[in-house]
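Everyone, carefully examine this protein record:
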Amino acid sequence: MENQAEKQTLTFNRAHGPFVVDVWEPRKPLHTPPVLLIHGWGNSGAYWESTARELSKTNRVIVPDLPGTGRSMPVRSPQNFYEQVSTLTFLVDELGLEQLYIVGHSMGSAMSILLTDARPDAVERLVLTSMCFFTDEAQKQVHKTVMNVSYVAMLFRPSWLADVPMLAKMMGSRYFYRLPDDPELLRQGFLDYLHLDRETAILSGDDARDDTIPEAGARLHLPTLLIACRQDWVMPVANVDHTANIIPDCQVHWIEECGHLPMIEKPAEYLTILRDFLGFNQNESAPTSTAEPVYS
């Protein structure tokens, strides 16, 4: 049986509070750049666990909990979107990552764009998952309304809610086309939300509508892949082509019958897409996937 990857957990004591990062070392290194996985709003890096374990067969993998989430708690001062990007920039510099691949998810994809814009010489390839740019002010207002409802709901978040099975399923139904069979996985995702720092969530969620994000996207000059899921009810999938047209050298890969979290709902297919785009499959067989790639 193959040994599990060595996972080291680092804690950086920052002015805003602890910043916790998992670093997975490769078992059979390909001598290609490390992979930084950046999670989205409302969660921690925990849902990247299986992705990190698989990618670390050949590559160093870095998975942070953004300030105000997961183990990077408590925060001494709420962190907005740009302060969280600054923390990621600190991580790249602190670990001496002169070359890296970045894989972002949802709001983590937007942060990945700004991080790449800040360190363009370091990032060799960029993967954006379940993310689209807004096309007009009306869409931004819809997003603002939805987020404001979420902020009010966050006023009542006792931890025991995670042990009410139907609530975890109700929360998960927004993010999955088909709910996972593992109740503990749904519970962990719900706990991440229940423990999220509310003020940080509000600041970062509101900043996600800023025009600085597509403006930075238009400045990218590296191979970029946008992975979009056909049944994603969180992001406006009708905006996929609009987003890809703004980002230079951006290709799109669609995943069918999948919601907002493809790394959980379609892990084998998602890993195959990542390995193909990052060039890992040239050296090692990818996980089996029955789906044919869909690029546009």
